[in-house]
Amino acid sequence: MLENYLADIKASLTASSIVRDIEVLEEFITSVSGYLECRLLMIDNSVLYIAEYFSISEDVIKRDKYSYHHQKNNVLLIRWDNAPHHRELPTFPFHVHMKDSVFESKEMTVEDVLKELAEMIT
Q: Who is most buried in 10, 42, 65, 85, counting CB within 10 A?
């Protein structure tokens, strides 16, 4: 099941029209958990770093920790993550960093991020 989840993420990245190149930086799967870290070169020469820790319990896959960090020329454009800070936000732990501010966010997936970035890039 975790293998399929990982394959689905990679398929989404490969199929995306805004991703020019994919570099897998780290990847592992055990019987109960996994991790994927990638560096994606986007069609506008920006870079998207993806990191996801995920696990399975009772046949349900949970994304324990994620970060989707989009930058250009080494400057943060936007980063969605679920790090357990910013408890003041009603969507805690889900939030988004833009420039020097933090805002509430829904829980994001790779597909959500690619969709959002497609609207920004194209």
A: 42
pLDDT tens, residue by residue, 102-118: 999 999 999 999 999 99
Separation CA 23–CA 21 (nearest Å): 7
State CA 58 to chain mean position distance.
24
| pTM, entire model | 0.94
The number of residues making up the chain comes to 122
| Residue 86: domain span | 2-121
Peptide bond into 84 cis (omega under 30): no
Could you tell me the sign of the dihedral formed by the alpha carbons of 40, 44, 45, 47, in that order?
negative
**pLDDT cut 90: percent of the chain above it:** 94
Using a CB cutoff of 8 Å and minimum separation of 24, what contacts does 8-15 make? 9/36, 9/52, 9/110, 10/36, 12/110, 12/111, 12/114, 13/38, 13/40, 13/50, 13/110, 13/114
**pLDDT number for residue 100:** 86
